[in-house]
Model the fold of this input.
Amino acid sequence: MKRKLAWALAIVALLLGGLLLFGRTWLAQRAFDRALETTVGVDQSAKLPDGLNVYVCGSGSPMPDAARAGPCLAVLAGQQAFVFDAGSGSIRKLGRMGFPMPKLQAAFLTHLHSDHIDGLGELLLQAWVAGGRAAPLPVYGPAGTDKVIEGFNAAYTLDQGYRVAHHGPKVVQPGGAGGAASVIALPGGTDSQVVYDKDGVKITVIRVNHAPIEPAFGFRVDYKGRSLALSGDTVYSPSFVAAAKGTDLMLHEALNKRMIAALGAKLAERGQAGNAQIMQDIQNYHASPEDAARAAKEAGVKALVLYHLVPSPPVKLMEPLFLGDAPKVFSGPLKLAQDGMMISLPAGSSEVKFSSGF
Done:
């Protein structure tokens, strides 16, 4: 009797296990089908309001952080899209956010530090293949940008040939591969000038202070009465404040010097003198959260978002520690950027709308 009961229970367990497995498989298929229907081949940007829409594709720094890609901001202005810097991992984040690659007009580089350009090869590839480009992507940047683009074009030459051979020239147009450099040269004594002006979108380059890296740039974007300014890497910079006057949104880099000093001290204690020195060195060419807040206050901006966070807070509990006295300096909306965050500045409005990151 006991043996029969055991067999019966085993059969019931197998049947229930099979039903559960079938149920999970059915739910998984439904979820997959739903994703196909709602996302694949759908322009996710079509639901965004006309105006300026900011994609935070990378809020991190060279320090390892699984949640944050290297520095990258993208802007959709009406039907024109732009990418500012392309840190490691950022372009895949951008794809996950539903960025409209076919609308990409140009990329802009703030400076040529490796952490701001090490995702550039991926951007050029996606602009070509996913964006369906017939001509190389224009890439604006400081002196040396031509050498950087020449290097990426050379590095991807074999890959480009493979893709054309596999998919055919009608799918991946050979003339659209790679980038075309446009070097920005600000005249001496000039701190800003318009470098892009087309169909209502105006982009202004701004000289900032990231010495000894020179030149280094920030940018301002204006469209339909809405405006934003992004700093790139800089200390507190009067030229950036002047050019950002009255913008709706400031995106500013930030390094917490007290936290970095503590990291340096611990590295020195553990015999890593070289890395400890780097922690000391990087403090003199980045802005603190308080510096960024001061810039936002003096520029009279509506909202401030800190990005390129060094070191990025690993948990929300540490965000006040990172911010320090910045909220006391700037009284408007102040947020730490997260990968996947969207910020919308709708035309005909004064709103600054935030959506959370991944």
